[in-house]
Amino acid sequence: MGRPADTNNYIYRMGTAPNTRAAISQKNKVFSYAVGTREFRQIGAVSEFGQDESRTIDPVRGVGFGDQIAELVPGSTEPMTLTLNKTLLYAVNVFQTVGYKGGVTGLVRSLRHHRWPFDIKQEWVFSEIVSSEDIEGVTAQALPNASTQATGQEFLTPIRALYTFFEGCWFNSYSNSSAADSALVVENSSVTVTDIIDGRSQYGEYIDSGLAPVSSNGAPGKGFSLRFAGGSQTPTAQ
Asked: Residue 87 in 3-state DSSP?
């Protein structure tokens, strides 16, 4: 039986990254439950991680009111899709990094062998300058970065990170190929997500998403569209 969770080798050696205010991919860490473990482990050799989602916006119009949009009504959001591509390792494939018994640990070779969903955690680790100067007042979201690294070692720093949890995930596509003119074999996969949370905030109808013209307790909001100014009447030009 192979031990893909035993990542104490040079492939998973942790490096350093530049201190910038722009977000960089070197500080985007992706975690899941590696096969044989019960805690999040960082996925190594990830060549691409991305997310995509969409929803339709339906216009409301009225006969006799000219070529005018009365209101835009958001439709249901399509399930979010993640792109998770990584370099194929002999002892660890992408199925194993999320908990399936594939490769050297079991028979899972196909999407049809997946019987249970998995979770993915993302950590955007902030640079030192951002952690110390730019995030006053938002510490409820930007948490101290105390994650478990790929080696399983706890690495505590004053640097903060933004956490996102992708729950109830299923692979919807998977591919890899070997080419004569390229030595590396890359696994390409797409993941469909059930829900997205931050792991801390109250979740439900009255989440504070910003831009509300009125708060949940009836007090005025802090920012809103001109559509809601003056009792939803058409604003008068000054």
From this structure: strand
